[in-house]
Amino acid sequence: MLLARTLPELRDACAALRSRYPLLALVPTMGALHDGHLALLRAAPPVTGIVASIFVNPLQFGPSEDLSRYPRDEAGDLAKLKGAGCHLVWLPDVATMYPPGDATAIEVRGPAERWEGDARPGHFRGVATVVARLFGQVRPDLACFGEKDWQQLQVVRRMVADLLLPVEIVGVPTVREPDGLAMSSRNRFLSAEERGRAPALHGALRGVADRLSAGTPAGPALTAGRAALFAKGFDVDYLELVEGETLTPLPAPETGSRLIAAARLGGIRLLDNIAA
Asked: What is the pLDDT of residues 200-237, one digit of tens each?
């Protein structure tokens, strides 16, 4: 497995992979890797050179969010990536990603509005900007993103379509713990008691989906889902039925619609979504 920490090293390593593989895939991460991240590597076709990036992106953290608290474990992450068959790891620092004189950022509207866009102002601006730069640095043929961060996936797809970027975006289904909790780097901050209650987020989404399938109107079904979370001690930011690509609210399920949720348990904010 190759490592690159500078742009010249990255260019040389990507050229070496290009000489061996017909396709190059990028898996962007912020580290603190778990099996959900490794599933992104496995989603790439067998004839693909796989590049994983590890970069804790300061642009996507708001003023009330603690960048320094984000978990970091470079040695552990590299061991996991090597075991998963990664070919190259790109490890830029902040000065490489955002050099002096930097003056360009990517602003996405549409799917970036509402939900996480309201809860975390500027977050998707940071996501779109770093992803666009990673695409420019690595020049991948495809890039893999998890469906757990559904809104983020749609923001990246919208950016790629609007800017005509020559990269295929591959959405990878959410990887879950045996009890249904979506795997996330932030799960490690849950106390044992909170971890026991955390699967209720997925359970509430499934309950809403079941009610919708049984013919319950969306309003009452969503209200029951939020009530189930309140009963488990969650503070609910949102639990909504939305159109899958645009994230606009829907009055009833339709083809491609999604149930999305964000809720706090203690000090930890958890996200999840399922097809509706």
From this structure: 999 999 999 999 999 999 999 999 999 999 999 999 99
Q: Within 10 A of 256 (CB to CB), how many other CB atoms are there? A: 10
Residues linked to residue 174 through DSSP beta bridges, in sequence order: none
Virtual torsion, Cα 244, 246, 251, 253, nearest 10 deg: -20
Q: How far apart are CA 119 and CA 238, in angstroms?
A: 10
| pTM attached to this predicted model | 0.96
DSSP 8-state symbol, 185: G
Q: Give the span between the Cα atoms of 35 and 105, in whole angstroms.
A: 31
Place of tokens 């989906």: 209
Question: Which among 101, 88, 23 has a CA at the least distance from the CA of 54?
Answer: 88
Residue 34: active-site member: no
Point out the residues of the chain with pLDDT beneath 50: none
The pairing of strands 142-146 and 168-172 is: parallel
Q: Considering 34, 37, 87, 202, which one is annotated as catalytic? A: 37
Residue 274's closest CA among 253, 257, 254?
257
Q: What pairs with residue 50 in β-bridges?
A: 25
The confidence score (pLDDT) of residue 78 equals 98
- Length of the chain in terms of residues written: 276
Q: Which residues pair with 4 in a beta bridge?
A: 90
Would you tell me how many other CB atoms lie within 10 Å of the CB of residue 27? 31
Query: Is the CATH number of domain 185-275 3.40.50.300?
Result: no
Could you give the 3-state DSSP secondary structure of residue 152? helix
CATH of 2-172 among 1.10.3720.10, 3.40.50.620, 2.40.128.20, 3.40.50.720: 3.40.50.620
- How confident is the model at residue 181, as a pLDDT? 98
- The pLDDT of residue 65 is 80
The three-state secondary structure class of 266 is coil
